[in-house]
Each structure stands twice: as structure tokens, then as C-alpha cells.
Amino acid sequence: MDSRWHILVVEDDPPIAEVIEYALTSGGFGVERTDRGAAAIARCRREDAPDAVILDVGLPDVDGFEVCREIRRHSAVPILFLTSRADEINRVVGLELGGDDYLAKPFSPRELVARLRAIRRRVASSTAPASACLRHGPFELDPERVRLLVAGAEIELTRQEFRLLEALLSSSGRVFSRSGLLDRAWEEGGAVTDRTIDAHVKTLRRKLGAEAAEWIETVRGIGYRLREH
After folding, report:
1. Which of 33, 39, 202, 226 has its CA 20 to 30 A from that of 64?
2. In DSSP terms, which residues pair with 54 in a beta bridge?
3. Which long-range contacts (CB under 8 A, 24 or more apart) does 63-68 make?
4. Bridge partners of residue 6, in order along the sequence
5. How far is CA 126 from each of CA 89, 132, 217, rounded to the nearest angstrom?
6. Which pLDDT score is estimated for 1?
7. What is the pTM of this model?
8. In b/e form, how buried is each residue of 62-100, taking b as 16+ CB within 10 angstroms?
């Protein structure tokens, strides 16, 4: 059985698609290409869906953001946007719609492969049992016991602070939008805003202590992430 990750490349510029395919196959990935958004949506609905999607935004038939929106209706396949729309608002839109990463053109093929490998690691870690402890850097978080150790010392957190850190730990390196963190930490809903996240992250950092707090990075204009190393 082929154990490689298979990537669907959705790109309508043939020279760029060829560069991507060469970089990915050299990096050990399987590659399938299409230049149409509608075909990508249909492909991700199949039982043998790709393991990840590299998605251009400026496609000739369906806007890449709409493609992402449609895929997210029925699939959690990782999506990496690769586009010339590098401004902040487009990055935010792409991540808010469910994209896992966003890389602007012109791009480094080596960086593209590295980002896909990081996504693959996050997917592998997210398949662990829900009750398994999350360990990363100085953190050891036990979801079953609702217990956090930082460098071996137990830290008391509120339920929302615990859920915030759990979300970040579950996918280190992934950028979470503020609204995405709201969904994870306030599952019951309520009158909360994006700024609520900022306030709770500030309190969480203070409780963690100066060294551990540095692991939670602010991504300007988007949200937060837990650094990978």
C-alpha cells in the first residue's frame, strides 16, 4: 500500500503547477493536479479524497475562497492557500473560511514542502485519543483530569483558559483566528467578542510565567499560535 501523503494541487498556471508538482514529488508526496475549482470540490467528495489540498485563490471558474467554503461543508481535509493575494485581509479570510495555512506567491518550493510536512505532523498528532496528555515544550496538559503542568509545576486555570491552551497545544504551529478560538473555548456560546480572546490570552500568559508565556505567539491581524520549537 502506498503510504505517501497525496496532495491535490489546484492551480491554473501550468508553469507554477509544474514547479509545485516537482517540489512535492521530490519531497516524497504523491501529486494530483487540476486547474478548476469545481473539479477540486468534486474530488474532495470522493471516498478516496486527497490527504491535503494546495489551493490557488484566482481560479478561472470558482473563486478559491468559495472552493474552500464548499469543501469545508463535508470535509476536514487540510487546505493550504497558495496565491498572489498576499494582503492581510485575504490571509484572514482564507484562515477564517477553514484554511490551515496561507503562502503567498512568489514562494519558496522548499518552504512549501516544509509547511506541508508541518501540516502532516499536526494531523498525525490530532488523531491521538482525546484523553491523551498533550506535551509540548514546558507544557503537559491532561484533558481528562483538566490538569496543567508547566515545567513540572501545576498551574490553575479557568475552564476557558484551559480550553484555549488545549486548542493551541493540539496543533502547535497552526495559526488560530480569534473566532476559531472562541468556538473552541466557548462551546456553549454566549455574549463574547474577539477581544474576549485577547483578554483571556493576556491572563493566561501571566499565569504561565514569563518563559512559558513566550510560547504563545501573537500573529498580527489574525490570532494566535503555539510555536513549534
Report:
1. 226
2. 9, 80
3. 63/37, 64/10, 64/37, 65/93, 65/94, 65/97, 66/37, 67/10, 67/37, 67/40, 67/41, 68/94, 68/97, 68/98, 68/99
4. 30
5. 28, 10, 20
6. 40
7. 0.60
8. bebbbbbebbeeebebbbbbbbebeeeebbbbbbbbbbb
Q: Measure the CA angle with vertex 165, ends 186 and 90; round to 5°.
A: 75
Q: What percent of the chain has pLDDT over 70?
A: 92
Torsion sign across C-alpha atoms 164, 170, 176, 180 = negative
Q: List Cβ<8 Å contacts ≥24 apart for 134-139.
A: 134/166, 134/169, 134/170, 136/169, 136/172, 136/215, 136/226, 137/212, 137/215, 137/226, 137/227, 138/211, 138/212, 138/215, 139/165, 139/169, 139/212, 139/215
Neighbours of 109 (CB within 10 A): 14
User: If you compute the radius of gyration of the chain from its CA atoms, what whole number of angstroms results?
Assistant: 19
Instruction: Report whether the peptide linkage leading into residue 106 is cis, meaning its omega lies within 30 degrees of zero.
Output: yes
Decide if 35 contacts 56 (C-beta within 8 A).
no
CA–CA separation, 16 and 1 (whole Å): 30
Instruction: Please write the tens of the pLDDT for every residue from 2-52.
Output: 568 999 999 999 999 999 999 999 999 999 999 999 999 999 999 899 999
Query: Which triple of cell numbers denotes residue 82?
Result: 497558495
pLDDT of 190 > 70? The answer is no
Query: Could you say which DSSP state residue 21 is in?
Result: H
* DSSP one-letter code for 153: E
The C-alpha cell that represents 178 in the structure block: 480569534
Task: List the grid coordinates of 176.
Answer: 488560530
